[in-house]
Amino acid sequence: MSELQEKILAVLNDGGFHSGEALGSALGVSRTAVWKQLQKLATMGLPLESIKGTGYRLAQGFELLAAVDIRAHLSAASPRHIDVFHSLESTNTFAREQAAKRDYAGSVVFAERQTAGRGRRGKEWLSPFGASIYMSVLWDFEQGVQALQGLSLGVGVAVRRALLELGLADVSLKWPNDIYVKGKKLGGILLEMVGDPEGHCSVVIGIGINVSMPIAIGQNIDQPWTDLDSELLSAVSRNKLAARLIDEIFTLLADFETVGFSAYRDEWESADAFSGLQCAIITPRETVSGVLSGVDNNGAVRLRLADGSIQRFIGGELSLRQV
User: Has 185 been annotated as catalytic?
Assistant: First the structure.
C-alpha cells in the first residue's frame, strides 16, 4: 500500500464524507490523484461509499485496527510491541523475520490484509483488506520442540475463550488448528518454529479470524465457512476482538512450557467439533480411517480403528469425507 493510500485512509477513518477536492487539498495532491488512489483502494475490497456532490467515506461501522485502541482494550496482557500494518505478505513472515533480527519475543503483529497469507500445508489464506483478523504472536521457549507438544490445540482453547467472552455461542474446535461455529470454519491457527529444536527457540503463532468476509471473496473458499458478522446480533469491534485474543493467548503462553497441553486437554475435548464421527487422518505416508476418540496429553488425535484399537497421530489432515 502506498504512502498516499495510507494518508487517505487516515482521513476517511473518521467515518465522515470527504470530497475529492478536500482530500486533495489536505494531502497536497490533485483531485485526480485522489480519485485514482480511491479506485485502487476499492479493488482491494475496502467498503468505500461515494455520493455525487458529497464525497467519499468508509462504510459505517468499518473500523481500522490501531495499536493504541487495542492496548486500551487489554486487561491482562502487556505485549512488548503491537505493530499494525495496512498490508504485509503475511504476519507470520514478518514475525519470523523479527525473531532473526532483534528482540521481538512477546510481541504481536497485525495486518489489515495479507498478499500471501498461508494456512496449513501451504494453502492460501484469503486475506481481504479489513475483513478479518490477521495476527501473529512471537514467543520464546527454552525447552525446544518437546515443550511445544499440543501448543496449537492450546492456542485453539485460548481463541475459543476470547470468542465466547464476546458473546459468540457454539464455538468448537477441529483438530489440530481450526475454529468452527455451527459446523462452519470461522478461523485457523498456524504455528512455525524458529531456532534450536533442542533448546532455546521462538514460535510464531499465526491466527486468522473471519469478521466480515465479502461474499464475492468467500466464494473462493473451498469449504463451508462463516464470519462474526453472520453469527453475532451486532457488529464486534475488531480492536476489542484483537485485545481479547491477545489477553487469552498471552495468559496461555505464560505457563504453557510448565503445565503443557494436559492442563487444557479437558477443555479442548469438551469443544471437539467432530468427536465420535467417522473420519480419516491423511499423512504423507498413509490414510487411516476410524472414529475420532479425543486427544492425548501431547495433543495427538486418537482414532479408534475397526478392530477396536486406538492409533494416535501427532500430525496430519483430518477429513470427514469418504475416503
Answer: yes
